[in-house]
Design goal:
With 262 residues, this protein is of the alpha+beta class. The chain is built from ten helices and six strands, in the order αααααββαααβββαβα. Strands 4-3-5-6 form a four-stranded mixed beta sheet. A two-stranded antiparallel sheet has the order 1-2.
Length: 262
């Protein structure tokens, strides 16, 4: 059984890392545009606050969460933007809301039955899977903030959660882009901060190898594959790197190549 307490500790650490970057910012800096089209630093934090709220709702009031899905169905491509905008506010207020919301989410998930299936967008997740997804979201939006501020983050072993989620969502990536899910297995071998991380059968001929950081940047669509030191062998692996998407929802737009390696 997954170590929920350990996952929650890693989520708290990832959140604290981002909090330490945005907490001291002058108010004017919250209006700086990030690499996400049209989103400021304030939008990044508001998005995390909103999705934490929705995850808490999924864990504590599934009926209310399901009711909110009707709004998503009306305009799935702008649903996230609309939700984010409802949580925008003055930086001090937004910080307080995000901090209180993530604490409430941690409490809700810690108290949920370990085998519960919590509703989410086009899927359902266990509490452990929900925490893993929140780590991924927090890290990814934290990357946008770090890029905006010119900060270079040191990779940590918390990337293991994102790498695992990226591997597990291979089929989701193909389905989201309207493509047939491949039947051929893919082997992933990544160099993490503390060693080699391996996923998939060793005998698979389709393979992805490279730095764990680069793989996480790819599956969260924070970098174009041309800017990353990932090597794909085999047609399935090669196609996957073009459409990899670890997050729920419609196909992400990704990022344009810059010609600079991360």
């Amino acid at each position: 059984m997954p170590d929920l307490a350990g996952l929650l500790a890693d989520l708290a650490a990832e959140s604290a890392d981002l909090d330490a970057r945005v907490g001291p910012l002058p108010e004017a800096h919250w209006a700086r545009l990030t690499p996400a089209d049209g989103w400021t630093i304030a939008h990044q934090i508001a998005h995390l606050a909103w999705t934490d709220h929705m995850a808490t709702l999924a864990a504590t009031d599934p009926e209310a969460f399901h009711a909110s899905l009707a709004t998503a169905a009306d305009d799935p491509f702008h649903f996230v933007d609309r939700g984010t905008e409802t949580f925008l506010g003055p930086p001090a207020e937004l910080l307080d809301r995000w901090r209180a919301g993530r604490a409430a989410l941690a409490e809700a998930l810690a108290g949920a039955p370990p085998k519960a299936k919590l509703p989410w967008y086009a899927t359902a997740m266990s509490p452990a899977s929900m925490v893993t997804a929140r780590i991924m979201e927090t890290w990814a939006h934290g990357q946008d903030v770090a890029d905006t501020l010119g900060h270079r983050r040191a990779p940590t072993d918390r990337l293991r959660h994102i790498a695992y989620l990226g591997f597990r969502t291979l089929g989701h990536s193909f389905m989201t882009h309207g493509r047939d899910v491949p039947t051929a297995p893919v082997r992933v071998e990544l160099v993490g901060p503390s060693g080699i991380w391996e996923y998939g059968p060793d005998e698979a001929t389709d393979r992805v190898v490279g730095p764990a950081l680069d793989f996480c940047l790819l599956v969260t669509q924070r970098r174009h594959r041309a800017d990353l030191a990932l090597v794909a062998t085999g047609p399935v692996a090669d196609e996957w790197l073009d459409i990899a998407q670890a997050f729920a929802g419609p196909p992400g737009v990704g990022r344009e190549p810059t010609g600079a390696r991360s």
